[in-house]
Amino acid sequence: MSALFRLTSRAIALQRSAALNQVATLRFSRSIKTSPKKDETVAAPASVTTEDFANPSPKNWMSYGFDYKSETEDRKATKSTFFVAVTLCLVWGTFYWSYLPDTQLRSWAQREGFLELRRREQAGLDLVSPNYVDPASIVLPSDEDLGDTEIII
User: Fold this and answer.
1) What is the biggest distance separating any 2 CA atoms in the chain, rounded to whole angstroms?
2) Which of 38, 107, 111, 126 lies in the 20 to 30 Å Cα band around 151?
3) Is the pTM of this model over 0.85?
4) CA–CA distances in Å: residue 117 to residues 105, 134, 141
């Protein structure tokens, strides 16, 4: 997981530096030229051979944002990041989370509650005892202590 954070912070730093470089480049290239254009001729594209397909030009390479200088490093970082993110985090993380044991004992408490209700129904008792707390242990204030206090039941 720490490798993923390192890759992410590295990618963000590279994107910021590339953005700053682009801003600086655009600042100088947006000037208006009034001189006559020297390269107004149209050139026919060269014929494509099998060697061109075997050895593609690196000028057509577009970075995925992990490495702007090396195509192989960029592809390795991309594949490893997606492997970690999708396979390890999403697939195995979901599998692990769905099969975690019941750490807060919710299913046990519900099962015990149903068993207690069934036992009380078969014994003919109230579902909840009215004397759940011993009435002798409860200390209530006297009428003099209450005075004019409104009691809402």
Assistant:
1) 109
2) 126
3) no
4) 18, 21, 34
